[in-house]
Design brief:
84 residues
């Protein structure tokens, strides 16, 4: 997100092409040594929409732990995740 490599709500091929060119320029400025030769394209989910982080991580003193919380940038901004 910080590198400008995310685009949402692209309605057609023109919007996609425009977003790709914008991303190419922003990523080159943000991280000039990172190649922009692959991308992930997904269809947008329909509302209502909530982002959620679900994963597994290894805690040094515990072992495997389930991680769950608010997803997207809220994971970093709000520190809104818990290990179970």
């Amino acid at each position: 997100t910080e590198a400008g490599a995310v685009a949402l709500n692209l309605k057609d091929g023109v919007a996609l092409a425009t977003a790709l060119e914008r991303m190419r320029g922003e990523l080159a400025a943000y991280a000039p040594n990172v190649a922009f030769d692959q991308l992930l394209l997904e269809s947008m989910a329909t509302p209502p929409l909530a982002e959620l982080i679900v994963g597994i991580k290894r805690e040094n003193d515990f072992g495997l732990a389930l991680v769950i919380g608010a997803g997207g940038i809220l994971v970093e901004l709000l520190k809104d995740s818990r290990s179970l």
